[in-house]
Amino acid sequence: MRFLPEATEAERGEFFDAVGEFLAAEAGRADRLATFPPVARIKWHLAKARRADDLLAVLRFERENPAAFPVRGRLRPSVAIPGVNTASLPSSVPRLRLREMPVRAKATDVLWRDGRLVLRGFGYVVNLPDGSHSPLPRLAWLRAKGGRRIPVKFRAEEATRATRDSKQALHNYDDAGFELVIDPNKLKSRGRWRAGTWGLTLALPRPGGYVPGHVDRVDVGSAGHSQSRDLGDGARLVASFVEGRFQVRVELPEAEITDQRVVDGHALRLGLRSPAAGKLPTKLRVVRKNAKTPTSYPLVRAEGDDSWSRFTADIPLADLSVAEAPDEKTIDFLTHIEFADGTDRRATVREGFAPGRHTRPAGREIAVTTDGPGLLKLHDRARQAVVDAMRWSGGALVLEGEYEGPGHSKHLVLRHGERFEEHVLPLDWSDGRFEARIKPDKVTTYDAVLPLRAGRWYLWLRDKSAWGNGADIPVKLRADLIDGLLPLRKRVAGRTYTVNRRYFDRLFLGSGPVLTAEERGAYRQRQLRQVLTPQFKREPLREAVFYNSFGGKQFSDSPRAIYEELVRRGVEVEHLWSVADEQVALPPGVRPIEWHSTEWYEALARSRYVVTNVGLGDWYERREGQCVVQTWHGTPLKKIGADLLGTPKANLAYIASLPHRFRQFDIVVSPNAFTTPIMRNAFRCEGEVLEAGYPRNDIFHRPDREKIAQRVRATLGIPEGKKVVLYAPTWRDDQRHTASKFKLDLQVDLTAAREALSDDHVFLFRKHPKILDAIPGAGQGFVYDVSAYPDIAELYLITDVLITDYSSVLFDFAHSGRPMLFFTYDLEHYRDTLRGFYFDFTEKAPGPLIKTSPELVAAIRDIASVRRDYAAKYARFVKDFCEPSDGLATSRVVDRMLQIAKNHERGGS
Questions:
Q1: 643: which strand partners?
Q2: Residues 423, 776 contacting (CB under 8 angstroms)
Q3: Which of 255, 298, 404, 614 is geometrically suited to a Cys-Cys bond with 274, CB 3.0 to 4.6 A?
Q4: How does the average pLDDT of the chain come out, rounded?
Q5: Pairing outcome for strands 542-548 and 300-302
Q6: ω before 406 within 30° of 0 (cis)?
Q7: d(CA 103, CA 390)
């Protein structure tokens, strides 16, 4: 059904027949359709009735709104698909059941204010913004099992995050914000604290009544972790999220841990208190997590007072030092307090408990700390860095803390939580203390200074000689300082940076988005496309060129070559460059335009010239008078677009959209005669295909290419005289982290390569932009991670040997005439299972196809033989795939681009 809009009439008829047969077979059973989700019910009933036009309308609407639909009816809500008459369907089909109107609610902050617990966040009924204008108020209450409702004060707030996090473009949930204030005193019974657990319920309006729901957590900060507070009179309150539901719990601990210290250099002494009139604690029981045999330590009475009895327990540090190797993972211990009456309870700490870390041999330590619910935590772990002071000083974040070290051989590493990108910064360390200064808006990347990419950057210490990140040391915040220091925010150069936590005490530095709240999320982006863009198109064209290279990720490729040619010619236009997340350094005279900002949509609508090397989306339509140039970005070895028809990789909806997409381009640039017919068919390209060669490959003919190469070598820090090997593999469709993020399928033995080649070679590793994961050995003098280098064409100029697999880089690098090696360890699987090829790669490859890492290293060492043995095949390859190659591709494209603009001005074509 998904691709029914692309089906032929005959195929649709077969589909409807199959639907009838399926439903007839189900006729003897309960109504299966009644169990389907709302839109699915409508689709199947329309298919049953063979109402093709209405069904196609529903499918098209669903493509544009995959996670949302309109609702009508003040008392009996029903799905209302625009342009589809659902009145003729049974009323039960479009009508929504209560379970089909779920509450989505999240806490974004949980904090204490004036002795009260404050919960801030958002909550809405899915597909019912504002409860579909219900007059009923929003309510909240606490309730213990079998107990009475305790009303909670509900104050409405604006929350643009609700709309953004809903990941849909149809509804505006900005009014879904709330602040809930919980007074713990209302949990008392007859003026006294009683132990118990209260769940929080939201009641949100819907047509005809209310929908109950629960508040879920986020994964960071105060709303991502449990919290505990002393209520006085021997009571404590624990606020937590259990199975996606916020709850509060009042505990009356019979005993608590009060303090910790090491005595006589070999024993951990824990202090404990219990109410003087309460149960008598006798032992502290400690057991290694997942072990069965605990050890009990007697509690020795100490000096107390009328209110509290006090005790101590001594645990030999040797009992807690159980790791068998210095690099063994953290070992956790569980602690219980035993009482004279035979009962026990998990050991908790009193508010204000000061954690400690006690050094052990072989780089280990015993950590005594706590967590959100206030449990006592004992760890045998590798020595960790613990921050105990931090502040913003101007635009710099200053972190100070303890690390027993040794720390003189360490540096600080910032690692992105999703992309695993890293930045290495200096660390000052002396006498067990460290200090680090981070300027998040000024991070050096090659020869550019850029702000930290948006996202969470986790902090680590790493040995300067480490080959990988396996021994990295996490940087944490001392547990008793969490509430007083976090979150720590600073607005610097138009971006908000926030220090916060995950996994209770794990520090990260969050780099906020560049886009405003009015520009972020699917709903706002649709408004920019459908509301503002038409307004921009009514304004005059600007004499500007708007460039887009790989979705705003680089100043590179053919768009860069066209920019440089226009500057060389002195064409009087404004140069606007699409930049994603401020991560592109631009030359003077080029104005950055943030990707998908309001300004970005205006530039796309009003620039006389648009130059892009990727698609612009099926929503985009060129306006009259614009000249739009599609330079594309590779000669295809792997099948693309419509040429995938008949294979599992074919996306019929995308293929059906190709004619419209490519009608928006005045010219599509082809690199060679081989690619031109493929572009016409694979992209359903009906317009002009200019077989000019790729402008990006003119770099191989530039008179200053040697000067560029010297600059690149200096920027990367490549030693004089060393040969450069560049490894640039493509991604593997079956090696994924997520749907769009791929794993590094590393089959090169980099350690062996270093041993064999490092005397006279360096190894540059350039991951495909879709590939994540760190590269082992990068930064240690042999392996260089050049994935973030802005333009691969400049890397070609310093490369002596290219290693690739099925990437289109092979067609570009062939312009250099230098040798190539093809590390095709999975050729049969890739060619026959993952992707199809346009030609017999084994026959035409201009270098050896290599299966193993030792063979690859041997081929690099004997590259002269490779060059000699493959000279004839290389020459044929260049003739087939690298012509034209005269350094004039950019000139040809710019000539045609300017001529088209003149024709537009005259009203011609």
A1: none
A2: no
A3: 255
A4: 95
A5: unpaired
A6: yes
A7: 39
**What is the arrangement of strands in the sheet containing 308-316, beginning at the earlier edge strand?**
256-263, 267-275, 308-316, 300-302
Q: Are 364 and 381 within 8 A, CB to CB?
A: yes
Q: What sign for the dihedral angle of Cα 611, 615, 620, 623?
A: positive
C-alpha of 629 from chain center: 31
Residue 682, CA distances (Å) to 527, 622, 638 in order: 32, 21, 11
For 635-652, what is the mean pLDDT? Answer: 92
Residue recorded with tokens 């084994």: 842
Positive or negative CA dihedral for 475, 478, 481, 483? positive
Residue 823 and residue 725: Cα distance in Å, rounded? 13
Q: pLDDT band for 30, please (50, 70, 90 cuts).
A: low
Query: Residue 477's closest CA among 401, 543, 542?
Result: 401
pLDDT at 135: 80
Entry pTM: 0.94
763: β partners: 725, 783
393, 429 in Cβ contact below 8 A? no
How far is Cα 335 from Cα 297, in angstroms, rounded to an integer? 11
> By the 8 A CB rule, do 742 and 731 touch?
yes
Give the residue among 705, 696, 703 at the shortest CA–CA distance from 798: 705
Q: Give the other-Cβ count within 10 Å of 293's Cβ.
A: 6
Strand pairing category for 103-113 and 78-79 = unpaired
If you ran DSSP here, which 8-state letter would residue 12 be given? H
pLDDT (tens digit per residue) in 872-886: 999 999 999 999 999
SS3 461: strand
Q: How many CA atoms lie within 13 A of 487 on its CB side?
A: 22
Contact between 857 and 757 under an 8 Å Cβ cutoff? The reply is yes
- Please tell me the distance from the alpha carbon of residue 851 to that of residue 865, in angstroms, as a whole number: 18
Instruction: Answer whether 807's CB lies under 8 Å from 729's CB.
Output: yes
- What Rg, from alpha-carbon coordinates, does the chain have? 33
3-state class of 836 per DSSP? coil
- CA 588 centroid distance within chain: 31
